[in-house]
Amino acid sequence: MNWAHCSSEARGLDHIAENILSFLDARSLCAAELVCKEWYRVISDGMLWKKLMERMVRTDSLWKGLSERRGWIQYLLKNKPSDGILPPDSFYRSLYPQIIQDIEVRGYSLHSGDGFGPTTI
Fold this sequence. Notes:
By secondary structure, this protein is mainly α.
């Protein structure tokens, strides 16, 4: 079997795989990255970590507030950073756990007042 041929055929279906994988949560996206090189490539090329973060910012006021206060909203929601260059998917992949840690360490609650407590972020 010609694996290069299969790989090029699989690439023709990337948009379908990307669409399906875009519905995953963070834990499932991590697991999907480990399935094979093709899935990892589809996730990376499709900027699915960025899309996951954008979904969180659109649907969760805590994420939206953090994105505005921390300044990483400039990389989301079709915005372009001041230099006009979007970071690679690896930037979003590494930023996601930092955001989760920030939320957990500070003990933020989505529904407690403004969601930011007494400490300024």
